[in-house]
Amino acid sequence: MNNRSTRADDGLFEVETSEDVEPVEPESELGPTGRPLPDLPEPTPPEPGPKHAIIISMTNQKGGVGKTTSTINLGAALAETGRRVLLVDFDPQGSLSVGLGVNPHNLDQSIYNLLLSREYSFDEIVLSTATEGMDLLPANIDLSAAEVQLVSEVAREQSLKRVLDRIRDRYDFILIDCAPSLGLLTVNALTASDKVIIPLECEFFALRGVALLTDTISKVIDRLNPDLEMIGILATMYDSRTLHSREVLQRVLEAFGDSVFHTVIRRTVKFPETTVAGEPITSYAPTSPGAEAYRMLAREVLVRCHAG
Ligand SMILES: Nc1ncnc2c1ncn2[C@@H]1O[C@H](COP(=O)(O)OP(=O)(O)OP(=O)(O)O)[C@@H](O)[C@H]1O
Ligand SMILES: [Mg+2]
In which residue ranges is the amino acid composition biased (Acidic residues) (predicted)? Predict the structure, then answer.
């Protein structure tokens, strides 16, 4: 823990991460990304009255980078601030559903039915979760058929958007957990979204494929959804003890600058444990650094979405 850099432009710092330290004056303390930690405001409760959900896709075609973990825990942290949150499992693996204690194999109906048939209503499919204010649209392997079946649909890229637009007034945030692919399902997610967050694992090949991803996002902006905005890169599975992890974080910062969230998610076994427990870290280990990190991320997201 004593690899310390003293110059701000080194990009790497003493590895006390934001989740371990008290909030401090911005000038006096550098966060794990090497920038002064912002003074993030305490989230205020959402405005009363009609809602219009901000829809965010968690996207990276690389597998195992923390998309699902971040969807669950960012969602739970937003729900803690009094927001109504819908999590959308948009991966045929159904990991988001599993992570919230739902066995995808036992589902008779899932988001697949909403996507491909008008016979089902949202209320028949949506599940409430143990986290107050947070609902789940579950998925299972059926969704893999949708990728094929949607190809012959009219406006096939807008299928998820049509589903979500109808219930947008019920939620403050809708988070979509994408599959590790850039196929039609992910294009549907990006088309339905206002914002996109890219989780990146702090390991050697992290940046490989990101150009392809940003290219896909640009194409969706040009052709399908001009309002889509990339609001941040989230560094995950950061291990401050390894030079390797710190170097990768530095490269991510060089590549993306201020797009990178100040919040950095550390590697900890608590996250796999939460999957087994089927609940977010904010309830499984509410005072853990991991829970605090996702709470800080929620604050950053609220600020970046002007929804704080
Ligand atoms: N910060 C972390 N520290 C340690 N393990 C983590 C962390 N975040 C996620 N994991 C674990 O890493 C694995 C992959 O995480 P996750 O499922 O969130 O990634 P993903 O990007 O959704 O994967 P896929 O591409 O397969 O959908 C899981 O077992 C998860 O519990
Ligand atoms: Mg996943």
Answer: 11-28
- From 38, 33, 26, 24, select the one nearest 5 (Cα to Cα): 33
Per residue in 182-233, pLDDT tens? 999 999 999 999 999 999 999 988 888 899 999 999 999 999 999 999 999 9
Domains of the chain listed by start with CATH number: 49-304 (3.40.50.300)
Give the pLDDT band (50/70/90) at residue 7: very low
Ligand approaching nearest to the C-alpha of 74:
1
Query: Which has the closest alpha carbon to 92: 40, 36, 150, 167?
Result: 150
Does ligand 1 have an atom closer than 6 angstroms to the CB of 298?
Answer: no
The CA distance from 169 to 140, in Å, is 26
Is any atom of ligand 1 closer than 6 Å to the C-beta of 26?
Answer: no
Contact 14, 273 (CB under 8 A): no
Percent of the chain with pLDDT over 90: 80
